[in-house]
Design goal:
The structure holds 2 protein chains of 2 kinds. Chain A contains 9 helices and 13 strands. By secondary structure, chain A is α/β, with parallel strands linked by helices. The chains are: A alpha/beta, B alpha/beta.
Chain lengths: ~260, ~325
Amino acid sequence: MFCGIDLGSRMVKVVFMDEGQIKGKHVFDTIEFYRQHGRKSGELLQVDFRELGIGQADYTVATGYGRNTLGLKGAEIIPELKAHVLGAIHQTQLHDFTLLDLGGQDSKVIKVRKGRMTDFQTNDKCAASTGRYLENMATVLGITLAELSQYSEEPVELNSTCAIFGESELIGKIIEGHSIARLAAGVNHTIFKRIRPMLNSLNSDVLVFTGGVARNGSLRNIIRRQTKFQVIVPDEPQLNGAIGCCMHAMVRLGNKE
Amino acid sequence: MARIGLTTTIPMEVLFAAGHTPVDLNNIFVTRHDSMRLVEEAEAAGYPRNVCGWIKGLYTTVIEDRDIDEVIAVTQGDCSSTHALMETYQLAGMKTISFAYPADRDYHILKDQLGKIIAHYKTNWAAVHKMKAQLDSIRRKVWEVDRLTWEEDRVSGLDNHLWQVNCSDFGGDIDRFDKKLEHAIGNFQSASPLKQPLRLGFIGVPPIWSDLYGYLETMGARVVFNEVQRQFSMPFETDDIVEQYLLYTYPYGVFGRIADIKREIERRRLDGIIHYVQSFCFRQIQDMVLRAKLDIPIITVEGDKPGELDARTKMRLDSFLEMLR
């Protein structure tokens, strides 16, 4: 049994896999996870998996934002983009594609050729194209993320330069009397405008869309409408990085034997 | 003998020939233990948050350093914010003189600019040429440090960066610099070769972070080409000082820089390039041109304030190195 852990900025994703099949999956709020289950042991983060009650693995691989500040005790750490590429290849069985991963505070676009990462771009110094932005905007609109993700028609124009100032801009639009549908569509379009330059420069025929934001159906539709990509969302978009960690574990243990 | 602050590299032969001490304000600022505070002081004084950290650091460096007698502000070829930096120096009572590299690389205009500072500092062309010969003999030794970096793998990316970047003012003391350099070269020559398998180029302005080179080396990669820093060492064989500052690529267009970078990619067998950009700098736009014209994996990293690498940049660098392997 392999365990893959993606220490994300908003959620910690844990996946158990055996023989290529998912045997267990768990998603924790990041802050809660560290507060309740983690403690510092030297320079490493120690997580009590027995206490978590989610089982034990023969080999554990971890990735994610947290890994540069703290390693995870008992786990091999791999770079985040590598984990996502491995996860996407396993989930789609494709080897040539562009991977779009939109997470809590990250947006990543990776070009994959013959199963290898050949180029990538990520957001830097700004979280205005990420899940956190969508969460904030849904809160301002007083709707859930699921509701927000239903709208893509007749978007209001939002300038989207900043995830925080975006809130006051949105409030201004609410005062102007636009419908929730148009406001939500505007928010979804804003994300697309932010990632479009990255998608343009790392083009492929197929776009594999992962990360928590991939569950936003409107954004999927906007990308389909406004680009030439064939958009594929794998079965477990949010768990993609953790699945990639399991794939790395499988290769690693296979090599050892 | 006056201490003359510089906002970037200028023909410092003139200052040494006139008996003055050039002080590259960037070096003073970024090596201060409280460089972050200098940026904050500039913001407290009224500098906008969305202005380059170097400009803000240079502002406070001069305002707080009462040993600087005058500042040469490079108003063309470096950073357009320097215009207003110069004006805020003037507001604080600091004497300034401007120097402009001609955008079209015109020989006569550059010669006039040199003539202007030669007259201002009351020296002459003959003395300046003599000083150039003296500095060139030191620069040649710095070229040797660079060669030992990429050809013999005996010098770390940080040491390569430091020796070259210090050629912008030779620490204000030519003889002392020369002695230290000779000693360092002796050590480099007897050092055992470094083992990092990945060979990187660093292009763009020098980084505002203190730990980039060391971090890369712990991750199995080493910078063997520091583009702009190398330019500070004037790696050109010419006896004509005007020609020398025309060959110097940094203050002119990006295409001249690209020709230089391409040559070095080949010569130094680079695996990838780190393009460093400073937050709010116009040079960020040139990333487009560099990516279109350079056929090598490039990662663009952005620095804002002085200090250590942030976790996000480390994550991106790790992924880049992983991709190159």
